[in-house]
Amino acid sequence: MWSSKKSSINPNDPNRDWLLLEDLLRDTYSEQKKSRRWGVVFKSLTFIYLFILMATFFVGARSGGGVGVPYAKPHVAVVRLEGVIAAEEAASAGKVGEALRNAFKNDHAKAVVVAINSPGGSPVQSGYIYDEMRRLKALHQDKKLYAVIADIGASGGYYVASAADEIYADKSSLVGSIGVTASSFGFVDAMEKLGIERRHYTAGEHKAFLDPFSPVKEDEKLFWQQVLQKTHEQFIAAVKAGRGDRLQLTDEITSGLIWNGEQALALGLVDGLGGVRHVARDIVGEEELRDYTIKDSPLKMLLRDFGVSVGKGIALAIKGDSIPEIR
Fold this sequence. Notes:
Elements: H1 16-63, E1 75-82, H2 93-105, E2 109-118, H3 123-139, E3 144-154, H4 156-161, E4 166-169, E5 174-176, H5 188-194, H6 218-243, E6 258-260, H7 261-267, E7 272-273, H8 276-284, E8 289-291, H9 298-305, H10 310-319
Parallel strand pairs: 1-2, 1-8, 2-3, 3-4, 3-5, 4-7
Antiparallel strand pairs: 5-6
């Protein structure tokens, strides 16, 4: 970079060219020195930023968002089950089950509360969580397990709640929906209008019976209805085992209808009205709460925020919604 300062070299000096060159080299070196200094500053800041980021990710990955060192004071353990119940979601059987095991094994936890805010989801994942709750209750009979429903505890959400010793909800919470659904689309008529020919090859007479581009066959429709009916019966049996005589499972109760918390209390779907704080303070008699929920690592949350799950959403949209769901 050329210097903007005025030269003090005598124009008539016989060594003028050499002095100018020396001046130029000196200025160039000075600018490079400044540039290197700023480069070191920026590199240091970048390194510090990356170090902090990696340390955050490492701690998050190590802890898994759960509880590391057991909490050594009396408290009520809280496990949150939020959103759709599915294998790859926050409300998966893996994450909820791990959180429940951590909560039950801590001797300082006076009780465990599953805080539910879910419209339902996979009957398999819901069943896994239900079974784990029942297993842990049997192993730790001195520690009560409560379910508290926030905005909604329907279908799979209620399936899970029914495994608790007692269920609480707000007067306006949505509770129930004991039913099973599986839905898809039919594109046969649209394809005919557009002149599209379907070419689908299978081995097995009924291999493509859920294909939305093929006509519905009556025998396959009846078969699929039997599958859903059996899943519904499993749901009803689980609720009956969990609620016992507190809930009379009439056809209306098991029809898939949903009620608010006040109605649910009258029907026996819940045992009382109140939130997590109410249960801890007034039922258990312990003010202190401790969250045992297994959270995603910061890296996973960051990637999700940047839309990595877009491809998953597209794949699910293309596949359709033919898998049974407790909703």
